[in-house]
Structure formats: structure tokens, C-alpha cells
Amino acid sequence: xxxxxxxxxxxxxxxxxxxxxxxxxxxxxxxxxxxxxxxxxxxxxxxxxxxxxxxxxxxxxxxxxxxxxxxxxxxxxxxxxxxxxxxxxxxxxxxxxxxxxxxxxxxxxxxxxxxxxxxxxxxxxxxxxxxxxxxxxxxxxxxxxxxxxxxxxxxxxxxxxxxxxxxxxxxxxxxxxxxxxxxxxxxxxxxxxxxxxxxxxxxxxxxxxxxxxxxxxxxxxxxxxxxxxxxxxxxxxxxxxxxxxxxxxxxxxxxxxxxxxxxxxxxxxxxxxxxxxxxxxxxxxxxxxxxxxxxxxxxxxxxxxxxxxxxxxxxxxxxxxxxxxx
Length: 326
Ligand code: TXA
Ligand code: MG
Hints:
Elements: E1 13-15, H1 18-26, E2 31-33, E3 40-44, H2 48-58, E4 67-69, H3 73-76, H4 84-93, E5 98-103, E6 120-124, H5 129-138, E7 142-143, H6 158-165, E8 171-173, E9 185-188, E10 195-198, H7 204-211, E11 240-241, E12 251-255, E13 265-267, H8 274-291, E14 299-302, H9 311-322
Parallel strand pairs: 1-8, 2-8, 4-6, 5-9, 11-14, 12-13, 12-14
Antiparallel strand pairs: 2-3, 3-7, 4-7, 5-6, 9-10
The structure holds threonylcarbamoyladenylate and magnesium ion (MG).
Magnesium ion is lined by residues 145-146, 154.
């Protein structure tokens, strides 16, 4: 494994067995699989390192929160807190192309990176029989964005995935052509009023036809007021200072490799491995934000991280965390 974190093998296999897919996923590998909407690029959602390699394979310049796929509503609701509306939507539309954003339970084992450090998690139960089989065999949720390179169109056939991600992931599970061909509808139920975050195959009209009128909030604008305030990302409450080799006396330290003795430190990666650093990033920010004040510290200083490979996404997140607060 090198510094840009090429954790994944170079020859991508086309496989047909959900069991083999589950085995690879359990071993921390990336496997693309078909759902009824589009092909997803899957990793074991509870394995932070595997989740970090999703961003690496997609070439994502930032850490968007990912959807976690479950075999059943019951399994999903063990990790997030469902309200009555979530339960009735799940009963009508799962398995199917609907994603619900709900508060994480405190014992939710999904990695912080999969949810971009947020207190909520997007969950969905796909209907595709092959995905269902694989999820049942896995027993843990599978985090999966669409299986395309960042900025490209979503794949609806195994061949599309191969063309995009050959050499970057372990395998593609042949699942045929996706029936829907459009991403799932994303509905945020984590606050009082539901918010339609992404229109999808299940329209507002279909939702309302099944469950009655939905009092949807206006979809929030995509342009945040200040980069540090980006609604869809966790922001630490303490001020953040970047590119620091030696923290000041009132600062806790987010280290990447060498760490000065004595400072309250969270280590992203002792060996300066970017995949490992990405997998620890949100854990580290949360941990320092919680522990620094207890030690009388007022800020978080962050080591510099190289602007290469996953370093781009890490630095994007860090610069948002350090941006002036609105
Ligand atoms: O159909 C689909 O949904 C496909 C298949 C593979 O399931 N997946 C997919 O994932 O389209 P992705 O990562 O491309 O889109 C996830 C969407 C993004 O718009 C993201 O911002 C939103 O879900 N999302 C995920 N977690 C969220 C959260 N905690 N809060 C708000 N939005 C969230
Ligand atoms: Mg996508």
C-alpha cells in the first residue's frame, strides 16, 4: 500500500455470486452491485478503512455522506431511530427506491466517515433480489454511493461500472440492467418537518398517494452561506487552525504522523497513510471537540496533509472546519 492509499487490488473481477461478494466485502474490499435504481459501489459500512476506499476509488474531492443499505427495515431501524412516519413509509415502500435520513442510535456501529460525521444516517432497503441476497449474507449494512467516478453519470449495467472503475475495486457483482435507472428518493425525517433532499423515482405524489399529505419543508438551498456552515457536514464547535507542526499551549492536536509530546493528540495515521487518515478523520474531530475543553484547551490545531489522492478530500473537509464561522 502506498501513500495515496491504493488499498484495493488492480484487477477487477466480474462475479456472479452474492456469497462471494459478501465474502469480499467482509474482508474490507470494494464490490459494486446492482440495485433497482443504479449500481452502487459497496463497502462494509462498519469498516471505516473500507469506507475510506470508496471515496478513493470514486475520486471524490470531498466526503459526502453515503447511503447505508440494509436487508430489512428491522435491521435498519436497529441503527437509526425511526419515528411513526418512517415506519409507515418503510412499510409501504421498502424494499424499494426510497432513502430515509434518520437520527443515528448512540450504539450505531456504522463508521463516522460513512455519515460524514453527521448525527443522522441515510438508510435504504433495496428491492433487487441479488442485492437482497448479498445483504442478508453480509449481516452488516453496506455503504454505497452510485458506482461511477465523481462527476460522471450513474451506471445502470455491470459494463458501465467496469468501464469506470476497472482496476480500482475488487469486483463487480453481475446483477443485470437496473430497472429504475434513476437514484432513490432521499427524504430527511430527522426533524419535525420532512424535507425532500433528492427527488427520485418515488415522487412526492406517489408518497402522498400512499400515506396522505406530506408537510414537506422547502428543500434547503445547495449554496451554503459560508463554507464552514455547510449544513450537510459536521463542524467542530472549537476553532480549527490548519497546517500546524507544533500546537500552541491552548490547542489540542490532530496529528498526521509526528506528534509533539505532551499535547492532547488524536492521531489520524502514524504512518501517514491517507486511507487510514480518512477513515479516522471524523472520529478525530469529534473526539478532540469533546475532550479538548475538559483539558482546558480552546482550539484544535491540525497537521498538514498532502494534497494528493484522498488528501484532497481530507483537506476539503478540514478547510471547511477551519473556515470563519457565520
Ligand atoms: O439509488 C440510490 O440511492 C443509489 C443506490 C446505489 O442505492 N445510491 C446513491 O448514493 O445515489 P449517492 O451517495 O450517490 O447519494 C446519496 C445521497 C446524496 O445526495 C447525499 O447527500 C444524501 O444521499 N445523504 C446521505 N446521507 C445523508 C445524511 N445523513 N443527511 C442528508 N443527506 C444525506
Ligand atoms: Mg451519485
